Amino acid sequence: MTATTTTSPLPSPAHAAGVAPGLRLVGVSKSFGHQTVLTGLDLSAYPGRVYGLLGLNGAGKSTAFNISLGLLKPDAGRVEIQGDPFCRRSLGRVGASINGPALFPQLSARRNLLVHCRLTGTSPETIAPLLERVGLAGVGRKRAGSFSTGMKVRLSLAMALLNDPEVLILDEPQNGLDPQGIIELRDLVRDLADEGRTVVVSSHQLGEIARMSDDIGVLVTGRLVYEGPLADFADADDERAMEKAFLEAVTGGGRRTETEVRA
């Protein structure tokens, strides 16, 4: 099935098994003045799976992420975390790296993480294992301001993982990484999902989304025009097929509702 059809399948086998989405947006709309950014957005990402969110610049991805994190209030609709309505307590269940790394450049990598530990009430004992996991164990005492872009991305990811979140949102995490770093990030994202987390990733690198994602969502001017398993969107091993499916989706794809799938 390609995205040119007016239908798309259920998001994942987990849905059919009755598993609640780790992250769910229901009828979310948002406008800024006279500009409508999101219109009735329904999105479901599941535990143990990587959800790749695709869209052209201005499609509404950043706004959807900010609403998912409680940084913006929707004009309509709601956000759910593991079936629970989003509230202040939900903040500890979600980790994110969006809008570029937010670091204190004068502080070391370790002290950056320590500041976040104090703000979130997280044990400092998590710092050393996280630095190891994101490949920064050898530079933990160096100033973050001296880091390369890729190293800053790794440190931002470590911050997102400090509270051991159930849901992880990553906006363009590959930016600034060299080829080896991209491969390592891909493996880490897969490992995080395999541990049971819901991982949502946005990227303009279609090939990388194909290599790491289980499910795909395509956002076009604030509406989700495709949502479903990657295997039903395009051949993940054929980057040209991914490009073709994406272009077809943004120029006229459609989305099937759950009722239509079952009919």
From TrEMBL:
GO terms for molecular function: ATP binding; ATP hydrolysis activity. InterPro entries: AAA+_ATPase (IPR003593), ABC_transporter-like_ATP-bd (IPR003439), P-loop_NTPase (IPR027417). Gene3D superfamilies: P-loop containing nucleotide triphosphate hydrolases. Residues 23-246 form the ABC transporter domain. PROSITE patterns: ABC_TRANSPORTER_2. Pfam families: ABC_tran. Keywords: ATP-binding, Nucleotide-binding, Transport. Belongs to the ABC transporter superfamily. This is Putative mutacin ABC transporter, ATP-binding protein MutF. It comes from Actinomyces johnsonii F0542.
